[in-house]
Amino acid sequence: MRVCNRHFIAVALVVAFAVVQTAQRPVLGADKDGIALTIYSSAKPGAIPAEWYRPVPESMGGNYGGPRQIPGYAVVKQDRAIEMPAGRGEVRFSNVSALIDPTTVTFESLTDPAGTAVVEQNYQFDLVNTAKLMERYLDRPITIEQTRGDAISTYSGTLLSTAGGIVLKGGDGGVTVVNGYSSAKFPTLPGGLLTRPTLLWDIQSAKGGSQRTRVTYQTTGMTWWADYNLLFTEGKDANSGLLDISAWVSILNQSGATYPEAKLKLIAGDLHRAQPPQAPYGGVMDGRMERLAMAKAPGFEEKAFFEYHLYTLGRPSTLPENSTKQIELFDPARKVPCEKVLVYYGLGENFGYYGSVMTDRNFGTQSNGKIDIYLQFKNSKEIGMGMPLPSGRIRVSKVDPDDDSQEFIGEDVIDHTSKDERVLIKLGSAFDVVGERRQVDFRVDTARKTMEEEIEIKIRNHKDEPVNVIVKENMFRWLTWEIVKKSQDFEKIDSRTVYFPVRVPKDGEVKVTYTVKYSW
């Protein structure tokens, strides 16, 4: 075992402290006039797993995104004062996002737009870390400390290899292999390594001196989505109710930078982008959630923007690196009238439509007993809503009157929903209302190319009040069909779907029968 001298240790400690400092994330706008973010999301509603809220560990790529692809991106607009050279010279622009797309960078001098321009641009991202330091110190002296229990062993020598362990060559020519170490100390920080991603510009400036500039670029590692919380109250009967609706925007930032006091905009809509080859993702993450207290601060203001919708926050907001921030999307809407809809689809699954006539009498005779529960309301201004709703997850709760606690009763996702459109939320399956479907008769006449099928559906209500149920049926056997007999009126929804609306009395049963004739 070889112990390094005092001078080497002193220098090494200073360098080690500098290396620790490099682990800090860049804070955009720390020396700027202003920063603005417009965030775009391709996240499917409700599809962001909880572990994505936390950063990727260094072993899987570090906190700069690692192997995972966050489903979204942002446009960063940063105003900053920069000291320009007179004539031709070099300018370094650091504190950019670690996941910046350098091909999207635009530069503008606000002080002298006509006389200042970027001639060439380089993006430098060879950031310092333990692996790169080890790589740069091959064939150079370092010191390794290994901790086992309370004992600390120190090894010094020329670094020969890091594959399968640390291999050191001593001054006497002896070789030491260290398997695992608690710290590594280097006498100096090798040149060429950066502590943060940097844009290096070759600039031509007529005036030189301090100029206000605006830099715009795109970065990955950011996304947003909407979450809706609904509180349901029973209405005057079993088929109606009232909703209290609140909406929150969640913003996930794993771009490798913090955005302090940023002007924030969100774009909702289905934007098309040229897609690069997708890399696989994965990994375990560790971190935290943050919630922004709203008080009475200005919230989001919505407006139409091209064929999309733009939501602008009326105050600055700080988005820390490796955080998920929640901001209220709009003021809660109270006592929004809704309708409770029960739907019975006896087939149990959507049968596909085939390229030929389906004459197998046993096909589609399965019976599903579950009746699905939906809540439906209209997104209109008259009932306290009317703002275009971004796609997101909807969670519904109901108050238990015995202890005034809110209990979860179901959730669903919605797509982007314009004003004055209906919102339909699937909650689950009814407990006390059940259905039964069976094939009563089936006949095929191949000479006349016709086929008839008679179906019987029973809806039983075990509740102590009547309920309305929609009986949904698909004519899946062929394109050309006609209902020739029926026990109730029906509504044709599309070319192969009909609805039979029925009202089932308390502790009662309703039977629906119909005969459909197919021809080809």
Characterise the protein shown here:
The radius of gyration is 33 Å and the shape is elongated. The chain has 520 residues and is mainly beta. Among the domains are: 138-185, SH3 type barrels (Roll), CATH 2.30.30; 222-359 and 368-429, no CATH class; 433-519, Immunoglobulin-like (Sandwich), CATH 2.60.40. The strands form five sheets. Strands 13, 14, 16, 20, 21, 22, 23, 24, 27, 29 and 30 form an eleven-stranded mixed beta sheet that branches. Strands 1, 2, 4, 12, 15, 17, 18 and 19 form an eight-stranded mixed beta sheet that branches. Strands 9-8-7-6-10 form a five-stranded antiparallel beta sheet. It is built from two helices and 31 strands. Mean pLDDT is 82; it is low at 1-24, 58-67 and 279-296. The chain starts with 5 loop residues before the first helix and ends with a strand. β17 (300-305) and β18 (308-313) form a beta hairpin. Helices cover 4% and strands 52% of the residues.
